Give the backbone structure.
Amino acid sequence: MPSAVSASRSSSRRSSRRGSSRRGASRRSSAVLRLFRIAAMGMVTVLILIAGVWASWGTAQYVMLTKGRERGTVAVTSCGAGTCKGAYTPLSPGSQPRAEVVLEETVAVAEGRTYPVLVKPGGTEVVRSGPAGVLYAWVPLGGALMLASLVVAGGLLRTRAAWVMGLSGVALVTAAFLAR
């Protein structure tokens, strides 16, 4: 009889070892998948934010790094096809008046109003300056923050960080909308 009991015990030990090794392999594979998901979603988040900064920096560099740039005002006379045109009046020393400069209409420009601007080097294209210009320049980053917050919440499962990112993006876009 003792041999039958010991045989049954050794049989149950072998089956429990097989079960635990299966569970261990399952845990390892789920840990690897979780690590891959975190890395992939982290990369997507970083790419979205880099794209937002890249899109914003095209205009923000002129608005934020103003040393040596021509400053003045533009009186908008006509708008159409995504741009507005008007006469440029210089405010900084060495800046020349221009009969017509081009200002993107996407930065909340209205016909008949005067706006402070900076001239882009080597041309007749200008960008808004001052606090409104800075806010308008960073609007693409605000959109990227809102989009990245969805990836952070859904892919990385970091809801607090997602809320902070999303609300920061909303605040930036709202402030740009309210700045006239």
The beta strands are 71-80, 83-90, 98-104, 114-119, 125-128. Residues 3 and 9 are 10 Å apart (CA to CA). Helices lie at 2-64, 130-137, 139-154, 159-178. The mean pLDDT is 86.
